[in-house]
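job 3f2a | input accepted
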Amino acid sequence: MNKPLRKRLKNWLIYQFILGLIWTVRRIPRPLAFWLFRSLGLLAFRLIREAREKTLRHLHIAFGDQRRDEEIRQLARQVFRQLGLNAAEAMRMPNLIAAGLQKHVRFIGKEHLDRVYQRGKGVICLTGHIGCWELFGAFIASHYPLKVVGAALYDPRLDAILLAERERAGYQSLPRDASGTRQILRWLKQGGLLGILIDQDTRVDGEFVDFFGRPAYTPAGPVVIAERTGASLVPMAIYMNDDGTHIVEVRPEIELQNTGDARADRLVNVAKCSQAVEAFIREHPTQWVWMHERWKTQAANETSVSLEK
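job 3f2a | predicted structure (309 res):
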């Protein structure tokens, strides 16, 4: 079914705007690109009321008992500012690759990843929409064979650009469907790395587990795949420093619980994954997409699993 004319026109304008931004940001110096996109991020904070209010509300959920209202508002402004900076980096990916990613990105905890990669059973890179996640994919792919799991964007034209850029950066996207599942299993059997983001409320198999003190519907896919294949689950993320450099940090493998009670083990293991991603966000709160409705899905009489911290 064709979309309404108004919707098609809106999507066309967004597409053209993004094409213009990509063309511009790849032809200007990095400091100027940062200034432009930082300004766009702050302008978005002022003009896009719905996204601003969601961000403020979610930051209050996470930090309202620790920070004053004005501190929360300043944090929200920094979230939009940082989103702009990371968007600039994502659009400038060919420039970064040509200059050498090591010029702007540093590895921390690589030994954790090397240890499990050498087992040859595959590695699930557990992460979220933290920092410049497209740069994260390109950097990991420059060291290891990588594929990622992701849903298609709402506009096929934008999705085609994204997939082409990932291919150019040395890794591929796998769909969230039956064919994608078969490809995932084959890929891990070959010992490759698989990137999965679990920090959003999506229509996939999942569980309600604790996220910043509230039940959040969290994908169970990484746990199910790890249990089925023997692949290791390793939390990692990228974040930008104040000087414009990035850190890719890898933390120790998540040890899955296996008591023989499949239901209880699944809940605990999904909670472990959620806690690992939350830990990165707590440490770098301006680097996450707080405008996402993380706690949107709720089930009647549903209790979540919370681990001791």
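job 3f2a | The chain is about 50% helix and 15% strand.
job 3f2a | closed
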